């Protein structure tokens, strides 16, 4: 008996030592992690997210300008080499050139808002997703401009899954990205994907529509890869997402107005909307045979499944243009059933591209109509691109939409 007692005591002692050891380790992990965070957060002891003024709104001059950044494919910074640049450019080219381009285009275009349309970071080249996200979105955070992102098919290939990525992105400085849509003040979590949300852009300050949304922005998660009926393909925008889109769109619809009785305080019927997502829809290949503005240089890497995105957009009617990424050397806008579909064109230097064909960004500008006494709803929406060449060339400017009331 005595022998057993002493071995029990021994076990007890061992367990105690073991427990102490464990607690010490946990303590150390928390300590180092915490101080690492403190350093990470710019040496300030308490950091909260810097918040953009919401709602987004038009400027006093009646314009609202969006910078679309498609496919940064950010890796780890200076050690991540450029792809598809001229042999002469290769040596001094890294992710830093993507950062440089982003700063440059923000400086030159002075946008009101930045929309990142996915493949913001590139899995295998970014072992630490958080670090890559900070670097990739760094210029946007420093600019203090409100910005939003959706995910592509590569973002989740490193240390965070899609839900973690969207939560992280939603917590970054000046980000107005959301993980889930919020309808009537509550988060709607029963929807496919992460990063489905809408943002409203209010009328010009001091105008009669200063407190109303005159332009709506929809962000949708087009997913990543999937095996469908035994075949590897891309994912697609699901029914739940289309139902949400339809519902929000219906809530935005104003009543039909007779232009004769229109006052500056009546929103134009059905404010226009724009949509942003990563993977092109299966109808985009049809544009190869149609008139387009820009270049169609590679096959469209879309899903084999057609979930009826185009049909939904046509029936809701307010989305006038869609902005996508994914196929880096396609940078065109083409029209399908009255809706424009525009590629951003590849932005990032670690993303595949075409040597000698400069990396590029898309600009979208909405302009308000002058009412009797003040700015009213959106009159027209234009787009153009900026190249990361010596002069930051502006190319392919085109009109995407004009209000019936101004025609
Ligand atoms: C990348 O940036 C470096 C300087 O930071 C510059 O010298 C080089 O020309 C850039 N490369 C490209 C392809 O823009
Ligand atoms: C939000 O509220 C409005 C008015 O009460 C209602 O018609 C609409 O269906 C609600 N939307 C959702 C998503 O619950
Ligand atoms: C918009 O809201 C602000 C603040 O509540 C108010 O002062 C202003 O008069 C409103 N403008 C219009 C056109 O309703």
From TrEMBL:
Which UniProt key words apply to this protein?
A: Glycoprotein, Iron, Metal-binding, Secreted, Signal, Zinc
Its predominant location is secreted
One Gene Ontology MF term: hydrolase activity, acting on ester bonds
Q: Which domain of life is it from?
A: Eukaryota
State the signal peptide span.
Answer: none
Record's keyword annotation contains Zinc: yes
Give me the Gene Ontology terms describing cellular component: cytoplasm; extracellular region
Q: Does the keyword Plastid apply?
A: no
What InterPro entries has UniProt attached to this entry? Calcineurin-like_PHP, Metallo-depent_PP-like, PAP14/16/28/29
Regarding protein family, the annotation reads: Belongs to the metallophosphoesterase superfamily. Purple acid phosphatase family.
**What name appears for this protein in its UniProt entry?**
Putative phosphoesterase metallo-dependent phosphatase
Task: Provide the species name.
Answer: Lupinus albus
């Amino acid at each position: 008996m005595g022998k057993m007692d002493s071995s029990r005591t021994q076990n007890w002692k061992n367990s105690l030592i073991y427990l102490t050891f464990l607690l010490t380790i946990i303590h150390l992990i928390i300590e180092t992690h915490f101080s690492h965070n403190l350093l990470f957060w710019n040496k300030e002891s308490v950091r909260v997210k810097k918040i953009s003024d919401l709602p987004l709104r038009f400027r006093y001059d009646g314009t609202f300008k969006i910078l679309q950044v498609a496919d940064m494919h950010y890796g780890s910074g200076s050690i991540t080499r450029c792809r598809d640049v001229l042999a002469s450019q290769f040596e001094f080219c890294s992710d830093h050139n993507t950062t440089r381009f982003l700063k440059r285009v923000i400086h030159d275009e002075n946008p009101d808002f930045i929309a990142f349309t996915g493949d913001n970071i590139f899995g295998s080249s970014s072992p630490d997703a958080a670090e890559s996200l900070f670097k990739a979105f760094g210029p946007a955070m420093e600019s203090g401009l409100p910005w939003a992102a959706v995910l592509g098919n590569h973002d989740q290939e490193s240390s965070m899954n899609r839900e973690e990525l969207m939560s992280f992105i939603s917590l970054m400085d000046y980000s107005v990205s959301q993980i889930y849509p919020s309808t009537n003040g509550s988060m709607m979590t029963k929807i496919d994907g992460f990063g489905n949300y809408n943002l409203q852009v209010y009328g010009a300050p001091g105008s009669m529509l200063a407190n109303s949304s005159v332009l709506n922005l929809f962000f949708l998660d087009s997913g990543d890869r999937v095996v469908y009926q035994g075949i590897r393909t891309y994912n697609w925008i699901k029914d739940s997402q289309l139902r949400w889109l339809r519902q929000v769109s219906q809530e935005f619809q104003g009543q039909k107005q007779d232009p004769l009785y229109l006052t500056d305080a009546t929103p134009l019927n059905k404010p226009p909307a724009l949509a942003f997502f990563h993977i092109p829809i299966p109808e985009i290949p049809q544009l190869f045979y149609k008139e387009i503005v820009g270049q169609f240089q590679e096959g469209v890497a879309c899903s084999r499944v057609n979930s009826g995105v185009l049909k939904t957009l046509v029936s809701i009617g307010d989305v006038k243009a869609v902005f996508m990424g994914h196929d880096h050397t396609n940078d065109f806008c083409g029209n399908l059933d009255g809706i424009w579909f525009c590629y951003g064109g590849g932005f990032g230097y670690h993303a595949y591209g075409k040597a000698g064909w400069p990396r590029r960004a898309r600009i979208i500008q909405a302009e308000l109509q002058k009412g009797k006494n003040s700015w009213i709803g959106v009159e027209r929406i234009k787009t153009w691109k900026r190249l990361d060449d010596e002069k930051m060339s502006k190319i392919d400017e085109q009109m995407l939409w004009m209000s019936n009331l101004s025609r």
